[in-house]
């Protein structure tokens, strides 16, 4: 006697769709909570860092001038904490601004060449080389700045001082060692160059092809296509890239510490030594031997750098938001 096994009844299509929809809703809910948790974690870490800096810097912020002068070795008499940190802020902003002014045009040119001018194989090779620059440690940049770049740019600094000495940045005596803010700015520009180039390159590659083809159909040259279609589209991205590079330049420590001959002056003479110092290099140089109130003073300078970096990023976000019509997301 033969038994016939009947197949199981097929599931209705509507029930399968309902089950899939229920599963997708569960995944969406989990992903939403993961995303919200990640955002809250970032804010919590940022708030924790700010609270730590404020708590540790509070003794220095509330201390008197006599206490600071007795606790900090290089703290001048009859000077407030704000007056002491002022030259450090000035040197930090001046070095970062000069580095940004040097690196941004070069980075935009390299990014445009890689994205719109170079052949495919050459653009891939240049992209790898640019990314490789970002992986070089800052100590290597410091050694390169001391032993290679410094002697090489010494004639350039002397020429600038001789022929363009009427400009405040190139006035004054020229240091024979090249351990000056101008050399530091060039090294910082090389360090932030790959960051700005990589972001700008990706932004330029996202330009809609229809915009470029429309410009070419109207008879535009390659440069006119770049000027009328690529640059307006990538303007907000270039601003964001420049702000990322500026943040790196503001917080760079080892290269500045190794190259710059420090000073505590409000001076625009970037070719003279013992004129400037940055906050990060100052903290790295003095922290190993500091104790007591001197440590709180160093943390207070770190709090100032934290506020400056936060203000720079907020200003960048405001600029990008005002020009959101050029953003690739739109």
TrEMBL record:
Entry's transmembrane regions: 30-54, 88-113, 125-147, 180-200, 249-268, 293-316
Protein name per its UniProtKB record: Phosphate transport system permease protein
Lineage: Bacteria, Bacillati, Actinomycetota, Actinomycetes, Micrococcales
Coiled coil: none
Region (Disordered): 1-21
Function according to Swiss-Prot or TrEMBL: Part of the binding-protein-dependent transport system for phosphate; probably responsible for the translocation of the substrate across the membrane.
Any Pfam family the entry gives: BPD_transp_1
ABC transmembrane type-1 domain mapped to chain residues: 89-316
Composition bias type Pro residues, residue spans: 1-11
Membrane topology, as annotated: Multi-pass membrane protein
Family: Belongs to the binding-protein-dependent transport system permease family. CysTW subfamily.
Main localization (coarse): membrane
